[in-house]
Amino acid sequence: MSTTIETATAEAPPPPVKRSSRGPWRLVWDQLWAKGSARFGLVTVALLILLAVLAEPLSELGGWTPEEFDKRAVDPYLGGQPIGDFGGIGTRHWLGVEPATGRDLFARVLHGGQVSLLIAFTATAVVVVTGTLVGIAAGYFGGRTDTVLSRLMDLTMSFPSLIFMISMMSVAKDVNRILLITLVIGLFTWPGIARVVRGQTLSLKHREYVEAAKVGGARPWRILTREILPNVSGPVIAYTTLLVPGMIATEAALSYLGVGVRPPTASWGQMIAESISFYETDPTYFLIPTAFLFLAVLAFTLLGDALRDILDPRGGRS
Amino acid sequence: MILYLGRRLLGALGILLAICAITFTIFYLLPADPAVAACGKTCSPERVAEVKAAMGLDQPVWEQFATYVTGIFAGRDYGSGAGATHCGFPCLGYSYEYSLPVWGLLTDRLPVSVSLAVGASVLWLVLGLGAGVTSALRKGGAVDRTLMVFSVGAASLPVYFTSIMLIWGVVRTAGLLPYPSYHAFTDGPVAWASNLLLPWIALALLYAAMYARQSRNSMIEAMAEPYIRTARAKGLPPRTVTVKHGLRSGMTPILTIFGMDLGGLLAGAVITESIFGLPGVGRLFYDALVRSDQPVILGVTLLAATFIVAANLLVDVLYAYVDPRVRY
User: Fold this and answer.
1) Residue A191 needs a FRET pair 20 to 30 A away by CA distance; which of A100, A282, B18, B124 works?
2) In this structure, is residue B97 part of a structural domain?
3) Are residues B122 and B268 in the same domain?
4) What's the ipTM?
5) Does the beta-carbon distance from B305 to A159 stay under 8 Å?
């Protein structure tokens, strides 16, 4: 990441006055911050990540671990309904408790967020790395490489992805569900970004500076990493941010259908799945993970939209 | 055009075969022994071997695959002697769970999924494109902002939340509609539509939001093209400029996405169908998963892939009519 920024900065035209020097990324940041919806997205994303990272100490502060039962918080005579209004929200349990078990929702939703965001980020990383590599290779080398890789993209895109993900997750042995879900989501999502990168690379590879590097004796690897990659990084970053909400939603959908993360591990989708039968008797239990899921998807979408407008005003979306 | 179509059809067939092979390998190699599952827990090893032979599972994988693929086109016979059953074209095998041909199960459930998908898609096209185009034409205004805030919010809501809220609000609290149960269109269009209305809305809301955002972007891009300026400059009325020149090229990217989405939904919306209890292909798929009924899983996957490939093909052909720049 840091190399990308350095290269991109190095390639910007030298600013006239040294003191007011602003790299292109600084400009992006300024434009982002100037936009209300983007600012909301940025702050929410930062907050959610912070909550997920600090899940452990924060739940300790709340006094409960995510798997700890609290039988005193639920009413055994009312079918395990939480005692108190709004699902038992109070000083003892900040976001209330789960019916029947009395597990602390604050601790669970934070730990669930950890799992959900971890899967979303790693899956996105897998997709971006694979997609960029394939796209750059297809666009730059052309010919047979391009044909084979493009066919592969077509093939992957013709898969009924959700149905396929569900069935792969359901037949797989219980090894590491989190790793598995990441790979399965990644397997079907890479062609989108590969297409974008391929298109960009095609338009870049005949630019003068690429020709100049070639004449200067640079090897393909150097041209790809030093000339092409920094210039496709804008659309890639915008597209990456827009991928994250889809990943969060997909993980939630898989866990909701019972083929994703398995209990006792919590994720937002898995919590929603468990809470859905209580939506009438204990709406708080249903609304809390849903609200977190909604906020996360919304915030990443807003941020991605703004980034796309700034970094890739036209094109890139084919 | 004919040559192009022929080439594309061959390509589509190749893709389907590849998908079939990959699906087959994954689902026949990974999971537990289907013969044991089909036979039950108290089965003797000899009986399992018999069942295996009857199901053709004692053959090597590639041979099973070849039998499966030829079975699709030519039909195949199960078992031998008096107990033999013939499974005609297109034979997708027998369900382990129901002991019925998979094709029959799929065709039984298909009308439900198609009703759901087609109804929802009409709704989301009208809502989504309407909102998107309106926004694009009033870019930056209050209408645009309101619509976009709504659509980004709606696109972030998971479909199970919308569904539950609709059931809670419309069915449980207000009692306006009955809890959805499927009625065939031929039995009465009113019952058909009123029962499917909630699932349509739930599904369409999500897609409409995405389409509004997409169509707004592509419409804005289209309206910035030089030929729009030319059309305006030569004095065409604004309506003609928007509809004939803007809309036509602005909607072509939407066509591609629509093909993919509708193709994917025709073979069942797993979550929506299971929440509303609609007996569609998605529900069949979900039940098959729970019982590891592999022929059904494979059948649904193939059906879904066929729909997607066919939709893509159709869209590419339609492009020639919608976009005058496309020639084959």
Assistant:
1) B124
2) no
3) yes
4) 0.81
5) yes
